[in-house]
Write a structure and sequence with these properties.
The chain has 207 residues and is an all-beta fold. The chain has one helix and 14 strands; from the N terminus they run E-E-E-E-E-E-H-E-E-E-E-E-E-E-E. A hairpin with a 4-residue loop joins strand 10 (147-154) and strand 11 (159-166).
């Protein structure tokens, strides 16, 4: 008979932030504790059921009792728990299926100017590396376009402001501040001086 799994992780708090959530928990006392697993997901609900649909978001060392979870804060209800795993890969969650789940609702930083439909551009905004404090934008080539305009949402002015004009289909917005969320639009430019409807996306930078 194998050894019992680690005890449950306790004391989890989940704080909504401008980049997603800050998680903190009590140190687990299991003597042969090897790692923590951060599980994150969405709250799925209907008239009769409310459930937490999760995935393993990160593996952390045993000397870590906090984690910054980055996600676009758009007012959704999220759920989290922390799993304890020992040297033999015994998992409290897998053994018991009884995690200490904590739910929290995101802040809502969504731009007040909605993106119009019918844009020829599909924009993808990503953070290429945690701690790099920049966002990489990639989008598709648009036939007949002579170039592209890149915009970033400014919550102070409640407007998308121009960052750059380029003939490429990629742009790096560098020098940003960690722990913030940024929203972008890219339009195609045409020879007659007109712009297409914008493709839009956003990215959150954890501290």
């Amino acid at each position: 008979m194998g050894r019992p799994p680690p005890s449950a992780v306790t004391g989890l708090t989940v704080t909504p932030t401008g980049y997603g959530f800050h998680l903190a928990w009590d140190a687990n006392p299991t003597p042969d504790l090897a790692r923590y697993a951060v599980y994150a997901g969405r709250v799925i609900s209907d008239e009769d059921l409310k459930a937490c649909e999760v995935y393993a978001a990160e593996w952390l060392s045993t000397d870590t009792t906090s984690y910054d979870y980055a996600t676009l804060p758009d007012g959704e209800e999220r759920c989290f728990f922390i799993d304890a795993v020992d040297d033999d890969w015994n998992s409290h969650y897998e053994w018991t299926r009884s995690p200490n789940i904590v739910t929290a609702t995101e802040q809502d930083t969504t731009p007040s100017v909605p993106a119009p439909e019918g844009a020829p551009i599909s924009l993808d905004a990503t953070v290429p590396q945690r701690g790099l404090a920049q966002v990489e934008l990639n989008w598709n080539h648009v036939a007949d376009a002579t170039g592209y305009q890149v915009y970033r949402w400014n919550p102070q002015t409640t407007a998308y402001e121009k960052l750059a004009q380029t003939t490429q289909t990629t742009y790096v917005d560098a020098g940003l501040t960690e722990g913030t969320t940024h929203y972008y639009r890219v339009t195609a430019l045409y020879a007659d001086g007109s712009e297409s409807a914008p493709g839009a996306d956003g990215a959150a930078l954890a501290p």
